[in-house]
Amino acid sequence: MIFEVRYLVFPALITGIIIWAPRIIICPLVFWFLIYKFRRRRLSSFEVVETFLQSDNKLAPISSQIARKIRSKRARLHQ
Questions:
Q1: Which domain holds residue 53?
Q2: Are residues 57 and 20 in the same domain?
Q3: How many domains does the chain have?
Q4: Rounded distance, CA 61 to CA 55, Å?
């Protein structure tokens, strides 16, 4: 009886290692690849446009210059 259990445990252990080892190795690689892929998808090839859109107040000086020009034109038209 003891010999039968010993002969069954070793093949079961080898079979478990054969079944689970590739899964333990491949699963982290698959997760890493998916994370890498989705991070690359979010990167933009238009870095200048992205930095402009994410900047805080680059439009404020332009709008004040436009407002100044409009006021000066209105003042000239009303003279």
A1: 46-79
A2: no
A3: 2
A4: 13
